[in-house]
Known about the structure:
Layout: H1 37-48, H2 77-83, H3 93-103, H4 108-124, H5 127-146, H6 149-162, H7 183-190, H8 207-226, H9 229-273
Amino acid sequence: MSSADGVSTPSILVEQNRALWVMPLDAYMVDDQLDHLVDVFTEPCMQEHGFSYQRPAVDVALRSETVTVSGRNLFNVDVATAWGYSGAPDPNDDALRAAQTDSMTWPQEQLDQYADCLQDARESFPAQRINNHVAGLALSPWEGAKRDPDVLEAAGRWVQCMRPLGFTDLPDSPNGDGGTPTSSMVEAYTGQSYSKTFDGAADRQTVEQKAEEIRIATFDAECQESSGYAQALYEAEWARQVSIVRENEPALTSLLDEKAAYEEMADGILRGAGPG
């Protein structure tokens, strides 16, 4: 599209929303839940080759309330006070974990056949290819935003805000050098070394440990707010993604058409197939 002075401007298809960390490139991402379409076609492929296999009983209508459609894990004061660093659970976690546990007992022949069936399914459907392409475009804006002068200045204020917690392994910013939670934070609210935890949080926490996680995470999130870090980072990443959309708009417009066709087809098949 063009502005009144004739200068080309990007077509931004989403509105800014920092609470959900909405970004311009989100409009081009396929809902990652729809990638479970490949499971619908992997199941009969495995069975046709003589293996007893049932796809995970995933309900694609359900997702963690703290994970966006584009797969970003949200972190803000509201998330921290409710869930700590761990975020809200994925309603499909039990089904996915059960499938993963079961696959660990498969013989090599079955693992090889599953890999072949999965590859065939992915080649037939473009969700992963589309999302990998868009994620690749989003990488430079994210890395650039973290180094933006306003973001770095706010990060310094965040470090000072965090010092009363008493952790000695604070990074230079919430998203630098591993970010938060740090290993000592994890140990403080799990009672285990970081290497023994899953995604930074122990599978089983006591009530007291979960409360400690929420306390530390809330302190962190409030420091990101009061220092201006969260706002500065959001604005810096948004501006850089706008530039990426401008530079790649013809290709992204074509990708959008492909995404829309895939989502319509995938939604119909998944609704018809139901949970595994």
